[in-house]
Design goal:
The chain has 147 residues and is an alpha+beta fold. It has 5 helices and 3 strands, in the order H-E-H-H-E-H-E-H. The chain has a 3-stranded mixed sheet, sandwiched between helices.
């Protein structure tokens, strides 16, 4: 398995408004699902700018050291959930009837099958995680077969 390496002392720039400034969620998700038909996974990150863990997850995704790895394997969509009152229909489309915390991470194949069932909320502590944990997580789910 080809895993990117993120050193412990990597400088991750904290993005201030990754979710509010993201493209329209419905359109972006539809485009990502279409693009994923070429063998990539859809990485849907349901978060909000008020949440430090959701901002941290988005910030790590933007790290230059991950860009080649991510662009080859994922179509990434940041989805603003506001105060749990926005884009909840998109979460429901992946089986999340309610969004119970941020970020909620869904990894799906091009057919919409969720690759990480039961793991949507594993990153609600993103700000306490080591950079390499992000890289390892992304590497594993880039290759795990669809259920």
């Amino acid at each position: 398995m080809n895993r990117p390496y993120l050193p412990e002392d990597i400088a991750i720039a904290d993005l201030e408004t990754p979710y509010a400034s993201a493209p329209d969620a419905k359109g972006a998700l539809g485009n990502a699902e279409y693009a994923a038909r070429n063998g990539k996974r859809v990485l849907a990150v349901f978060g909000a700018d008020w949440c430090p863990d959701a901002r941290r997850f988005a910030s790590v995704l933007a790290a230059p050291q991950l860009q080649d790895f991510l662009s080859e394997r994922y179509e990434i969509v940041l989805i603003d959930v506001g105060r749990y009152d926005k884009n909840l229909d998109l979460a429901a489309g992946y089986g999340l009837q309610t969004v119970e915390g941020a970020p909620a991470i869904i990894i799906a194949d091009a057919d919409g099958r969720v690759i990480n069932p039961g793991g949507a909320y594993d990153w609600r502590t993103a700000r306490t995680r080591r950079p390499q944990e992000f890289a390892d997580f992304l590497a594993v789910y880039a290759e795990v077969p669809a259920p």
